UniProtKB/TrEMBL annotation:
Species per Swiss-Prot/TrEMBL record: Homalodisca liturata
Domain of life: Eukaryota
Annotated GO MF terms: metal ion binding
Entry annotated with the keyword Metal-binding: yes
Signal peptide: none
PANTHER family the record matches: NGG1 INTERACTING FACTOR 3 (PTHR13799), NIF3-LIKE PROTEIN 1 (PTHR13799:SF13)
Family to which the UniProt record says this protein belongs: Belongs to the GTP cyclohydrolase I type 2/NIF3 family.
Protein name: NIF3-like protein 1
């Protein structure tokens, strides 16, 4: 049996996009397992102002009837009601009827599933909380996501003080971004974020200025405390 809870939003309502933004800021979709289907699964064609939200574990036909009767605008279903691709939406199968009813009544559907399992302060942490562990860690940490993906490489540059201006010109010309600058006794250290398409131009310019540099490909940063399961 699905656990259901209805929530009302005071006033004229909240834009669906704002609610989705809030949900994904709490538990980014990147935390989901690769096999999962999470996020905004059903979105009406016209803009929606959400005045009533219905929370449920499973979106069944009984739950859908309650959502329709209570004029719900958004259903947050923990388990995703859409998992396999649909070739048609008819009244012949119950899952297809659910989607047809959502679209007919301009109801959105959002499913968090494994993102809420993995996130810090989510379901896994809640399940572990009665045991009063001294420290709780994920069994399988989340890999995380690449922040600012437009910058693919991290570059550290050391150049003589007298070549600082020339080095800065090279950096600017190659569309790299200076993260930090440190002046040493005879050298200047630049920490940069560089774009892949301009990497050769950056290397060529740095070689001309006789600077020392190292280049590393940036990787995803694992979000602390997030992942599958918990142990303590």
């Amino acid at each position: 049996m699905a656990a259901v809870r209805a929530m009302s939003v005071e006033g004229t309502g909240v834009r669906l996009s704002r609610i989705v933004e809030f949900l994904t800021s709490f538990a980014p979709l990147s935390l989901a397992e690769s096999w999962d289907n999470v996020g905004l699964l059903v979105e009406p064609a016209s803009p929606v102002l959400v005045k009533k939200v219905l929370l449920t574990i499973d979106l069944t036909e009984d739950v859908m009837k309650e959502a329709v009767d209570s004029n719900t605008n958004l259903i947050i279903a923990y388990h995703p009601p859409i998992f396999q691709p649909f070739k048609r939406i008819t009244s012949g199968k119950w899952k297809e009827r659910l989607l047809a009813t959502c679209l007919e009544n301009k109801m959105a559907v959002y499913s968090p599933h494994t993102t809420w399992d993995a996130v810090t302060g989510g379901l896994s942490d809640w399940l572990a909380s009665p045991f009063e562990f001294e420290g709780v860690e994920p069994l399988v940490p989340s890999l995380g996501v690449l922040t600012r993906p437009e910058f693919s490489h991290h570059v550290t540059v050391f150049c003589p003080l007298e070549l600082k201006d020339r080095c800065q010109e090279v950096i600017s010309r190659s569309h790299a971004e200076v993260v930090s600058t440190a002046e040493l006794k005879t050298m200047v250290k630049f920490s940069l974020e560089a774009k892949k398409q301009f990497l050769l131009e950056l290397e060529s310019g740095l070689n001309e200025t006789n600077c020392y540099y190292s280049i590393y490909e940036r990787g995803p940063i694992p979000p602390r405390g997030c992942g599958t399961g918990r142990f303590g």
